[in-house]
Every structure is written in structure tokens, then in C-alpha cells.
Amino acid sequence: MKKKILSGILAFAMLFGMAPTVPQTAEAAGPVPEEVVLEKSTQGNPVAGFDEKGELLYAGDPAILVDGDTVYLYVGHDNAQAGSSYTMPRYLCYSTQDLKEWKYEGVTMEMKDVAWADNVSAWASQVIKYKGKYYLLYCAEKPGTGKCVAAAVSDSATGPFRDVGILITPNMTDASAYGRRGSFGWEDIDPTAWIDSESLDGDGTVYMAWGNTNAYMCELDIDGESVKVKDINGDGKISQGDTRRDGDIWYQRHDIPTAEAGNGSGGVDFTEAPYLYRRQDEDGKYFGPYYMFFAMHWREEMGYATTEDLHTNTWSYKGKLMEPTATSDTNHPAVFNFKGRSYFIYHNGSLAGGMGQRRVACIEEMTFNEDGTINYIQETSTGLTGVTSRLLNCEYEPLAHEGFSNTLQDSFYPIMDIGVKADGAAERADMLWEVEQGKADKGNASYVTIEAYNKPGLYLMATKEHGIVLAHDHNGNQAATKDGKTTEADAMTFRTLKEPGGKGVVFESVAYPGWYIVSADGKVSLGQDFSAAEAAFVVARGDITAFSARKTVRTYGVGEKVTDKDIRVLVNYDDGTSKTLTSGFTTNAASLDTSKAGKKTLTVSYTEGGVTKTAGISIQVVAKEAAIGDLDITPAKDLPKKNAAYTVGNLKYKVTKTDGYNTDGSNGTVTVTGLKSSKLTSVKIPDEVAINGYSFKVTAIASKAFQNKSKLKTITVGGNVKSIGKNAVSGIQKKATFRVPSARYKAVKKLLDSKAGFKKTMKIKKIS
Fold first, then answer.
1. The whole model's pTM is what?
2. pLDDT tens digit sequence for 538-560
């Protein structure tokens, strides 16, 4: 989504891009404030929501086609300007090759070009590729008849698609005989398709499922420009039955326990939006059961069921995957495999002015358990590529919104007044925020808008009562302007100012100039004292678990100035992520005395989240005429020694080589020798690890390192691993997955042999 333009990482190491001094308001106290520019999170969710000009474009009901190295996203254009009626005049397409940058491909089919349909009901669809052509299976309103399922064809994945006729009409389906709701005019919607083919070339049997309240399935006969429902029994007509043996269209049951079944509130029930899917291994071959994802209840949650045979009429319900979104009453899943990983696409109303009839597509990674069940999916503002931060007050307590679950009750929405507090005991997800470019002025770099990570579309908002709440950018149920402006834009935007002490940032309300976010005694509100300690905040990414610094040039002549321009800092966080910095830290380089030969210590300090980390780099000052062999260059005293053992994060290490001089860009190498806990189910082996402030490349996994760790089922192998010892992974989960960087895939695959304990039931997947 182009609310996000360039990738970036938000940290306390802010870019202090100073703007001209801004006069302070009469009410404010203290020194004159100076603007600062924070780095913004510029990617993440949503992944669509714009046109070729970068202007706002609502669209929902996502579907995915993976064609070679390209992922195509298809959506129906939501053009409702006011109120809550669906107005969907066309189908649109986006594409990506990395799941980071999404290109708007334009209109794939205009409903005004479909002779039999009205021109405003481009409801849910799916595109499949079959025998070299692309087929759009879609549903639309036929005046006087109701919703129908139809097909269109194109020679290109991006269209234009040409309608080739109606496949399903309301008089063809009636579930009253199966104890469900009889035909009601819009049960024939939301088609999904699956090509049952091991060859992946699109020549297998094509199954289509669809439905609202009632779900159905059939097979399709596709030949060039012709798409028809398959006459399975060859009697010359299309009939409905309870099973495939009884008719060409057969009813779909989701095996929902009686105790849980029900519509509207409580329990679980099929509502609409089915989506068919099957898993793929690292070679692209399909395996395991078939999955049907679908919307449940109203408001709509996401659930799923499985079957071993698409000819059956019964699916085994497996559970809920996602609660109703915070900003839309409907939802629609699309699930796909790409580059060895699985992804879940859905829609919400998180755009400015968004809601149930003005939606946008979002993405999350989807993970499976060993038994094929799927882990619960949290809708997020960051998706795959955004960056979260914490806002810490002067006592380093994190700001968090009050915890709440999105309910099924319409009366709860739009969400406009959730409390905000400073609470270190809050749920982790409730204290994570995405700091973005300010809504009030996209061109003012000192403006920010702060979105809730786990409630996308909800933002910190200043109120006229001088409070701070979490609220939906709802715009009074009106569409936003093309550049995303709404009635809430100013109240959801804050000007970032340099805290007088120079250690943090102050947030001034754009809607109420001279009023600043303050935090005192756990309460968060607006105050007028810019210089008060309660107005100072630190924007921090996470808790630092390890820190190290490297320097390329470490020997200087007498009188020569020591430079810190070649320093590289490695920061590791408690969430398993890391980042490398070439600026944003401080050193004592300017004060080092090089007038005499000898050893000096260059100190590198970095502050984030109220915590300062320091590392020392050994510098040797020598007489200019000294020979290299005469140099007395020794590393710092705390440099880890060879064969020393350390535990960092979830892994145990042994130092195999030390280099105090940083000659190859690191201070040595280490081998992974074991796990911190035998209860771990997944582990990530980093490229490098920081020990005592020094950086070591992780080059090996020792013999028996993970032997008999029976719960371990996912191992991410770092890019520097060159050897894996005997029985290193024997006795772990027999269906374990090894995730390996693409560039190292072939090399690591050779290392993971039977001697290492690798079994044929295990998998090796490429990661980017």
C-alpha cells in the first residue's frame, strides 16, 4: 500500500533532520521547540489501495493467482461514496514478485461490459490459469434473477477478461432438502476453484465451490472460450444432489459440532467466501489434505476445514483462524504458496475512510503445525514488511491501548474511544505501534501518525477534551479524499519535536497546537508543558539482547586523527531480529589522544529504549617509522577466548576462532553446540552473534548439537554455516523443516545428509 513508499526502520537512533525553529504557542512553557524527523515504517499492510497515480482506491474480496515468479492479486473495486451500500463497478489487479512492492495493473473487467449483469456488483472472484488461458470465475447480480456465478476468459493474467456466460443461477441450487436455508437470491456468490493436478500445468480436473449460508461444489468443463458446469452423469442436464453421486452440483457440509453451530452470535457456522487450497513441498508438489477457508458468522470471522477427497460432501472443521477485523464487517480469505512459504490474504477497512463497503487487501504469513492444523492469524498493520516500535515515557513504561477482542456485535463499531495507558504489564501486541507518515500532510516530514499494530486502521487520536484515545479513521462513514484526507486526519497526526534534554521526542497535536502527548501515573492525555518530563518519549524497536561494534581501520600513526566513519554496529533484539547501523551511535573518537604511541580504546555507545549499550574497539597508535612486525597490537581484555562456551538467546555456542584485529570483518567464529531449552519447537541460527560486545560469525553446527530434541520442528540455518556435524539433528521431529537462505540452499542441502541425522520425511525450504 502506498501509504508506505520506501522501507525503513524506526529506532531511537532517530534521524534528527532539523527544520527551521517553530515559534512556541503562548500557553506552552519551556524552551522553543525544534522539529525532528523520525524514520517511518513505510511498507507493510495494506498491500493494495492505490491506483497508477498513487491515489486512494478501495477494493475487497481478494483472490490470488501465482503464475511463475509473479503473484497476481485480484479484487473488486469498492466505490461506495457514502452510506453502506455495495457499489462495485469493476475488477482490479495488482502484481508483485517479492511480496513487498505491489504494482497496480489496472482494470481487468468492467461490469458495464457484461451484457446480462447490472454494472455495480463485481463481487468476489478468482482467476485460474488453465491450458494457457486465464479464466475469471466471478459473481454478479442479474436483474430480476439474483446473484449468479459466471466465467470470463483472457489471454493475459491482467486481462481484459471477456464474459463467456453464466454457470450457476439461483434456481439451480436449493438447500432446503438438507436442513439448511432454501434458495434466497444471493446464496450463489463467491466462487473459488481448484485444479487437481500433480503436474502444475493446469491440465487437471477443475473443481469450483461457492456459496452463502449454503456451500456447493461442481466440476467445470473448460475448452478455450467455453466454460460450463460438467454434466457428470451425462444425462444432458445439470442437477443438484446431496453428494457427487446424486448430482452434478453437490452440497458441502463442514462437520461443525452441534454445540458450536449457529448464526449471528456464538458458535461456528459457514457464512460465505469459501477458498480452496492445498499445501506444496519444496519441489512444488502438492501433499496433504485439501483445505477450505471461509467466513463464519456475522460479523465475519475466518475459519477452515479439511477433506481428503474433493468428491465428498463433508469437510472436517478445524477451527477459527482470525477474529472479525477491527474495521470491516465482512472478510474474505485467499491462501497461496510462494517461494516455499504459505500466505494468507484478507481484507479489512483500514484505509482512511474505510469500512465494510470500502475495503483493502492485507497479507500475513501462515504457519502449519505438524498435524496440518494452522496457527491462529493476527491481523496486523505491518504485514510482512512493516516495522513496529514501542513508545516509552520518561519512566520507560510503554504506551499501550486497552486490551479488547473484536466482537460479533455491530453496535461495537466503529471503534472510536479505546483508552490508552502506560502499562509495562500490558499484552505485548497491545504495546506495539507502527509510526507512519502523518495523515494531515504527507509532505511534512515531521508529521507522524501512530497506528496500532494489532488493530490496523485504528490510530492514536487527540480529542477535543484533550484526551488520547485509539480510534478508527472512519470519516463519518464517508469515503476519504483521493489523497487520503478525512475529518480525523488532523486529530490523528502529531508533529515530532526534539525533547529539550536531547534524549527523546515530544509529540505535538496538529489538531490542537500547543498541546502535547503526556504520560503521568499510567494515564495518557494532552498537556501544555512542552518541557515537562511527562511529555518526553523514546521511540524504541524492542529490547536489545546483544550489541557489538566493528571497525575496519584499527591502526593509526602518531598524531593521526581516529575516524569513526568505518564503524559498523550489530544490534540483536529479543524478538530474534537484528539490524546493522553505520550511524546513530556515539564514540569517543574525537577525544582519543594519539600524540603518543600505544594502545587506546575506542568506545562505541548506542542508546535505545532507555538502555545504553557500550562496546570497546582496540586501537593501536604507532610511530610512523615503525615496521609492521614491531607493532604491539592486542585485542581488548574481554575478547572471548578460543573454546570458551557462551549462551546467547536460545542457543549455546563454542568459540572456534578469535580475531581481535577484525581482519575479516568479524572478531572470529563460533559453533552452535546446543539449545538453551529442550522444550523449544523452533530455533533460528543467526549469521552472526554478539558476545561480550564482539561479533562472531556462526559457521558450524556441532555434532549432536540438537540430538534427541524431539520437540524441535523448525530450524532456520544462518548464511554463514559451512559444516554440520554427525548426528547434529538426529532425533528431532521426523517431519522437521529446515529454512535456508536461497543463496546457500544447495550447499546446506549437501550438509544435511543422513550422517547429520536428516531423514527423507524432513524438508528443506528456501527463504529470501
1. 0.73
2. 898 766 777 888 888 888 989 99
DSSP string computed for 9-37: ---SS-B--PPPP-PPPTT--SSPP-B-B
Identify whether the C-beta of residue 705 lies closer than 8 Å to the C-beta of residue 673: yes
> 578: which strand partners?
572
Question: How long is the chain?
Answer: 768
- Which parts of 339-493 are beta strand (E)? 341-348, 360-366, 390-392, 399-401, 418-422, 433-437, 447-452, 458-462, 468-472
By CB atoms closer than 10 A (0-12, 13-18, 19+), residue 680 is: middle
> Does residue 17 register a pLDDT over 60?
no
Residue type, 566: D
The tens digit of pLDDT for each residue in 156-210 reads 999 999 999 999 999 999 888 877 777 788 899 999 999 997 544 457 899 999 9
DSSP alpha helix (H) spans, 267-354: none
Backbone angles phi, psi at 17, to 5 degrees: -80, 95
Dist CA 337 CA 481 (whole Å): 35
Q: What is the chain's Cα-based Rg? A: 29
Pairing of strands 668-675, 694-701: parallel
DSSP 745: H
Question: In the numeric block, which cell numbers belong to residue 702?
Answer: 556441532
Q: Which of 692, 696, 698, 691 is nearest to 673 (CA)?
A: 698
Beta strands per DSSP E along 233-381: 240-241, 249-252, 270-280, 286-296, 301-307, 316-322, 334-338, 341-348, 360-366
Whole-number Cα distances in Å, 513 to 449, 507, 526, 731 = 15, 10, 11, 63
